[in-house]
Amino acid sequence: MKRVVVTGMGLVSALGNDLETAYNRLHVYKNAVELSNELKGIKGLNAHIVAPVKDFIIPEHYNRKVLRTMGPVSIMAVYSAEQALSDAGLLNDEIITSGRCGVAYGSSFGSAGPVLDFYSMVKTHEVGPINSSSYIKIMPQTTAVNISLYFKTTGRLIPSGTACTSGSLAVGYAYEAIKSGAQDIMIAGGGEELDATQVAVFDTLYATSVKNDTPDKTPSPFDVNRDGLVIGAGAAALILEEYEHALARGAKIYAEIVGFGTNTDGTHITQPNKDMMAKCMRLSLDSADLKPESVGYVNMHGTGTKHGDIAESLATESVFGNNMPCSTQKSYVGHTLGACGALESIWSIQMMNNNWFAPILNLQTPDPECGKLDYIIDTGREIKTNYVMNNNFAFGGINTSLIFKKM
Question: All domains of the chain, ordered by start, with CATH?
Answer without folding.
Answer: 1-407 (3.40.47.10)
